[in-house]
Amino acid sequence: MSENLRFDGRVVVITGAGSGLGRAYALEFAKRGAKIVVNDLGGSVKGEGKSTRAADEVAEMVRNAGSVAAVNYDSVENGDKIIKTAIDAFGRVDIIINNAGILRDVSMLKMTSSDWDTIINVHLKGTFSVTKAAWKYFKDQGYGRIVNTSSGSGIYGNFGQANYGAAKMGIHGFTQVLAKEGEKYNIKANSICPVAASRMTQDLFTPELMELLVPEKIVPFVVCLCHESCKENGGLFEVAGGWFTRLRWQRAQGAFLKGKFTAEDVKKEWTKVNCFNGLNDYPTGTQDTIGKIISFSSENAKPKL
């Protein structure tokens, strides 16, 4: 990559840019020459209410940093309005960072349909809505960079976050499809799982952790992902406190049973189903799975000498 990662002439749309990570993104991209669309509904952590103050303050900070900003106060569920703000103000959109989020933590027994739908709508549908609205512009100009925000709650699970975890894992699945569909148009999409001090995490972390996990330690990695020189596509990255790492699927040894077989036959092979010892099998798509099955079938069809 270039030693000096500039974004002159680029338009960056950042959702949830009124505080925390979103604000940190906006200020850093502004310093690097980008034009910023500051989107924030201005609601509470639970998604209640709205206000223009947070977005207005960040937009002013962007201007004080020597760049230009357009402000949007719409919910991410109305992604077309957010992207329209970028087009009306700057005539283009180059980068979107789907960062907006809320929490409605509750155990499965107590979770309501409203708790579920609200989280899915903001996180998963919101990510889709903003991306969908920008996609035609990315395709027409032959350029686009997308960073979607997943979470360890989706990858690993977390008590009381069935709604949030489902949305966040869905976001990475969405990212992987975008990466495949957009590659020929020079549209790159990646997911990050950030752990950062914010109003959403202030009740979870100690003061020492809050100091370590400042948003500013996430931002440089996202800047790299968004630059035109970055070739990463479809990746999933954990990012926290200055530590950056890529995650990937690994396939176990597995068991292949030919002909007719029963549940009891499967049970006998359960150790193989779960065995990862000494294996370096890292699938990247369903085609790898089909290839395995065909290979096993062919091997079993060969006559024994």
In short:
The chain is of the alpha/beta class and 305 residues long. It is built from eleven helices and eight strands.
Structural class given helices, strands, pairing? alpha/beta
CATH superfamily of the largest domain: NAD(P)-binding Rossmann-like Domain
- Residues in helices, as a percent range: 40-55%
Strand order of the largest sheet: 3-2-1-4-5-6-7-8
Helix and strand element order: EHEHEHEHEHHEHHEEHHH
Uncertain stretches of 5 or more adjacent residues:
none
Report on the architecture of this protein:
The protein has eleven helices and eight strands. By secondary structure, the chain is of the alpha/beta class. It has two domains: 11-247, NAD(P)-binding Rossmann-like Domain (Rossmann fold), CATH 3.40.50.720; 249-305, Orthogonal Bundle (Helix Hairpins). The longest helix is centred in the middle third of the chain and has 29 residues, at 113-141. It is globular. GO terms for molecular function: oxidoreductase activity. Belongs to the short-chain dehydrogenases/reductases (SDR) family. Pfam families: adh_short. It is found in: Peroxisome.
SSE topology:
Blueprint: E1 11-14, H1 20-31, E2 35-39, H2 53-64, E3 69-72, H3 79-90, E4 95-98, H4 113-141, E5 144-149, H5 152-155, H6 162-182, E6 187-195, H7 207-212, H8 219-226, E7 236-240, E8 243-247, H9 263-268, H10 270-273, H11 286-301
Parallel strand pairs: 1-2, 1-4, 2-3, 4-5, 5-6, 6-7
Antiparallel strand pairs: 7-8
Helix pairs in contact: 1-2, 1-8, 3-4, 4-6
Attribute tags:
8-stranded mixed beta sheet; Helix Hairpins; alpha/beta
